[in-house]
Write a structure and sequence with these properties.
- The complex is a heterodimer.
- Chain A has two domains: about 80 residues, Arc Repressor Mutant, subunit A; about 90 residues, Orthogonal Bundle (Arc Repressor Mutant, subunit A), CATH 1.10.10.
- Chain A is about 55% helix and about 20% strand.
- Chain A is built from eight helices and eight strands.
- Chain A is elongated and about 60 Å long.
- Chain B is mainly α.
- Chain B folds into three domains: about 70 residues; about 30 residues, no CATH class; about 80 residues, no CATH class.
- Chain B is about 55% helix and about 0% strand.
- Chain B is built from nine helices and one strand; from the N terminus they run αααααβαααα.
- In chain B, α1 runs parallel beside α3 and α6 packs across α8.
- At the A-B interface, α1, β1, β2, β3 and α2 of A face α3, α4, α5 and β1 of B.
């Protein structure tokens, strides 16, 4: 492999794993195709070729290249093929589980955050302030998308948890949190 | 309960039971065991006389609602043995054990950042043939999601914050409990560059069992020999 390709792959890896923030402070999940094309000043065919090479290289490290559509554009990110530690705290993981349960029960559609809060506050799991902070962090980490008082999945949740996994989490959350 | 003074058809009786258990489940009202057992026995008696498909479907629905209530009751009974905090941790463990995380690293990017500013039409990237199929409205929507890289100043601020935390507590085991993931990455980078020195003895951290995401920079043999001398 030539040095130029090697260097391009290195830059691509950095671009895919770097933390970026959107204008609203929410973590961007990977990088969009448009930005990659512009940054590398390359054509789509060349980018596809590089991504193909990167995909083959990172698979040995237990990583996989994922492509998803968001707001009408292709985005790329790197995901672990194995279960490994994530950046959420225990409380954040539990609240995410409860939100997943609510959304799955509602057939994947957005749910009212008031219902989630009602359940967790009535069960004395968290205080109102704690819960607000946790939900805010989940939004900033790119797990949830909040619109007024409604919450729906952000791409990160869909990428990190498969449909079957989300269903399983929903079943268990209903059993454990009441 | 089955009222024997009024004559019911099996269908009416089954429908009443379905609604009764559905309501009870919605209101989280768990009916007494004796009442549920009487209804279950009644269902058994009614079943012998069922002839039409509609009656059999109602019978199945009735058993389903009864089973659901019973299951929820058992789950709640078992879960009450544990505290709300323990149950939250159980859920948290489940979420963690099923997560395939995306990979992010808290560091400065080395790629060019000029493409972040799409303030005027001329600087916008040209549309690739594949993206040409995407409606203009969606493309405009995408351009709202401009991203900002972490700046050098932010990294410096994070580094000084981590240094302060490290000065306050040198115990890696305690420190790792208080650090967020980006902070742990910064600490790891500081240790790797030799800026700070983390030492952990073998008795504290088994080498074959990784217990922290912080890279531990160990003193080399020469240092140890010098210390002994």
């Amino acid at each position: 492999m030539s040095d130029i390709v090697q260097e391009a792959l290195q830059e691509l890896f950095i671009a895919l794993t770097t933390r970026w923030r959107m204008d609203n402070g929410v973590l961007a999940i990977g990088i969009s195709k448009g930005k990659l094309l512009k940054a590398g000043n390359i054509q789509t065919a060349a980018l596809d070729d590089l991504l193909q090479k990167l995909r083959a290289r990172v698979s040995d490290l237990g990583l996989e290249l994922v492509e998803y559509l968001y707001a009408g554009e292709s985005w790329y990110a790197l995901r672990s093929t194995y279960v490994c530690p994530n950046e959420l705290t225990n409380e954040e993981e539990a609240v995410l589980g409860v939100v997943i349960a609510n959304i799955e029960t509602n057939n994947g559609k957005q749910v009212s955050l008031d219902n989630v809060k009602k359940k967790l506050l009535a069960g004395k799991y968290f205080s109102d302030y704690q819960l607000d902070q946790i939900l805010k962090r989940l939004e900033q980490y790119g797990y949830l998308e909040k619109k007024q008082k409604m919450a729906s999945y952000s791409p990160r949740t869909l990428l990190e948890f498969s449909a079957d996994t989300r269903k399983h989490i929903a079943e268990q959350a209903q059993r454990l949190v009441f | 309960m089955h009222d024997k003074s009024i004559t019911h058809t099996p269908e009416q009786e089954l429908m009443e039971m379905v609604l009764k258990y559905r309501d009870a489940l919605n209101k989280s009202e768990y009916l007494p065991v004796t009442e549920r057992e009487t209804d279950r026995q009644r269902l058994n008696t009614i079943y012998v006389g069922l002839s039409t498909i509609r009656q059999k479907i109602l019978d199945s629905k009735c058993y389903y609602e009864l089973g659901k209530l019973q299951k929820e009751l058992s789950d709640k009974f078992l879960a009450e043995e544990s505290s709300p905090t323990q149950r939250l941790y159980m859920l948290s463990y489940l979420v963690r054990s099923l997560c395939h995380p995306l990979v992010f690293i808290a560091t400065r990017s080395t790629i060019t950042t000029s493409y972040h500013a799409y303030d005027d039409e001329e600087t916008k990237p040209s549309v690739s043939p594949i993206e040409a199929g995407v409606p203009e409205e969606s493309r405009r929507q995408t351009s709202q999601f401009r991203s900002h890289p972490i700046t050098a100043a932010e990294i410096k601020a994070m580094q000084s914050e981590v240094r302060q935390l490290f000065r306050a507590c040198h115990d890696v085991q305690k420190l790792r409990l208080t650090l967020s993931l980006p902070q742990a990455q910064i600490l790891s980078q500081l240790a790797a560059s030799g800026d700070i020195k983390l030492t952990v003895t073998n008795s504290q951290v088994p080498r074959n069992n990784l217990v922290t995401s912080v890279i531990v920079k160990e003193s080399d043999n020469n240092d140890r020999q010098r210390e002994k001398a």
